[in-house]
Amino acid sequence: MAFRSSIMFLLVAMTLCGACSGAGAVYKVGGPDGWIVGVDYNQWSSSKEFRVGDGLFFSYNKQYHNVVQVSEQGFKSCNSSSPIAAYSSGSDTITLERPGHYYFLCGAPGHCEDGQKVDVQVSRPIPDNPSPAPSGLSSPSTPHPEERPPHSAALTNAPKLALAVFASVLACCFLN
């Protein structure tokens, strides 16, 4: 009985590890305190190296804050009237899909002006097998991050999570 439980635990752990591999790092914006007024977001973001595939986790009290992705101009002027995307769940994970700058601010009155805004610069992922491009050829241009709003990482990982759940159920059926 203990042997079957150990085997099942091992299979479930391996399945979950496989389902989660390939995902980038997830950064809690603002550190332990989350998305609040009073954090130096320039200092927070400058100490990290964001890559395509990483996620930003915004944790905040939705009664007082929100997250608005804006253009560079909107960021500089604290203007959230033409958002690229807006989030208000209090627990939002945004996947960084392209290299370039992403600009976020809190749209609550006065919060951006008080420093609740973050500029995240995203680099290309490190290739598994780096090889130089043939000379004379250029790579296609990468669209600016502002051209398409990010989506939730939960949607990106849904097939992997479904596979993990299916494999776990299957393991339970065969081991009992």
Briefly say what this structure is.
InterPro entries: BlueCu_1_BS, Cupredoxin, Phytocyanin-like, Phytocyanin_dom. This is Putative Blue (Type 1) copper binding protein. This protein is an alpha/beta fold.
Molecular structure report:
- The termini are close together.
- The chain has one domain (25-125, 141-175): Immunoglobulin-like.
- It contains four helices and eight strands.
- The protein has helices at residues 2-20, 41-46, 72-77, 153-175, and strands spanning 26-28, 50-51, 55-59, 67-70, 85-87, 91-95, 100-105, 117-123.
- Helix 1 packs antiparallel against helix 4.
- It is α/β, with parallel strands linked by helices and 176 residues long.
- The strands form two sheets. Strands 2-8-7-4-5 form a five-stranded mixed beta sheet. Strands 1-3-6 form a three-stranded mixed beta sheet, with helices on one face.
SSE blueprint and pairings:
Layout: H1 2-20, E1 26-28, H2 41-46, E2 50-51, E3 55-59, E4 67-70, H3 72-77, E5 85-87, E6 91-95, E7 100-105, E8 117-123, H4 153-175
Parallel strand pairs: 1-3, 2-8
Antiparallel strand pairs: 3-6, 4-5, 4-7, 7-8
Helix pairs in contact: 1-4
Signal peptide: 1-22
InterPro entries: BlueCu_1_BS, Cupredoxin, Phytocyanin-like, Phytocyanin_dom
GO molecular function, one term: electron transfer activity
Which stretches are low in confidence, meaning pLDDT under 50 for 5 or more residues running? 5-21, 136-158, 169-175
| Name of the CATH architecture | Sandwich
Order of helices and strands: HEHEEEHEEEEH
Major sheet: 5 strands, mixed
Based on Cα principal axes, name the global outline.
globular
Fraction of residues in β-strands: 15-25%
Task: Tell me the domain tally.
Answer: 1
The helix count comes to 4
Number of strands: 8
Strand sequence of the main sheet, in spatial order? Answer: 2-8-7-4-5
Q: End-to-end distance, in Å? A: 9 Å
Helix residue percentage:
25-40%
Radius of gyration: 20 Å
Supply the CATH class: Mainly Beta
Look at the structure and name the CATH superfamily: Cupredoxins -  blue copper proteins
Structural class from helices and strands? alpha/beta
Mean pLDDT: 76
Question: Might you state the CATH topology name?
Answer: Immunoglobulin-like
Signal peptide: 1-22
Pfam families: Cu_bind_like (PF02298)
GO molecular function: electron transfer activity; metal ion binding
Region (Disordered): 122-153
